[in-house]
Amino acid sequence: MTRDQLKKALGARIIELREQKGWSQSDLARACNKDRQAIEKLENGKVNPTLYTLLELANALEISLPVLVRLS
User: What is the assigned CATH class of domain 3-67?
Assistant: First the structure.
């Protein structure tokens, strides 16, 4: 898997988990103290998030980090 493929797969996973909670991008952004544009870039695979950002997302979604990054 290339870097770009990994970023897109992670973005799709974030969308999936966010939608399971019935949240908009704005809802997720508020829950992890980010702006909506940052969430949009993550979901579109435009950025390579830090480990800390991934942890913030997992905490906001009330899941563990391994559940967040489960891409299969």
Answer: mainly alpha
